[in-house]
Amino acid sequence: MSRRLLRLSPDYGNILPVWEETPGLEAGDLDPEDSGLSDGLVQELLAWNTRWEEFLYSSMPEDELEKHRDAWEREGRSLAKRIELELGREIDVHVTYKP
Fold first, then answer.
1. I need a surface site. Which of 50, 54, 56, 82 has the fewest CB within 10 A?
2. Which residues of the chain have pLDDT under 50?
3. Distance of CA 16 to the CA centre of its chain
């Protein structure tokens, strides 16, 4: 059995920022209802995506913004691990920070 490949990556709009990248499966963002993820994790992923959009339009000083971005990136790595835990051993989640 081949491993399922997913990508955690932000994008514009209120979407689940988890993308199917498994060869042979339809590519695109996962539907929250059919993702197999818990409601709690789905909500955290949506909030993570929203924070990314806020960074794009932020007027906060660059040094302050960098601290927030660093924390956001750490959270992304943590969320990727949680996706792997919830969906099983045959999942690899790659994290990118640009759409």
1. 56
2. none
3. 7
Contact 26, 20 (CB under 8 A): yes
Asked whether the beta carbons of 3 and 90 are under 8 A apart, the reply is yes
Q: Which pLDDT tens digit goes with each residue over 50-70? A: 999 888 778 888 888 888 889
Domain ranges of the chain: 4-95
68, 92 Cβ separation under 8 angstroms: no
Q: What is the Cα–Cα distance from 44 to 75, expressed in whole angstroms?
A: 10
Q: Quick check: helix, strand or coil at residue 2?
A: coil
Measured at the CA of 36, the angle between CA 20 and CA 98, to 5 degrees, comes to: 35
Residue labelled with tokens 């993820």: 37
Q: Which residues contact 57 (CB under 8 A, 6 or more apart)?
A: none
pTM: 0.89
Running DSSP on this structure, what letter comes out for residue 13? S
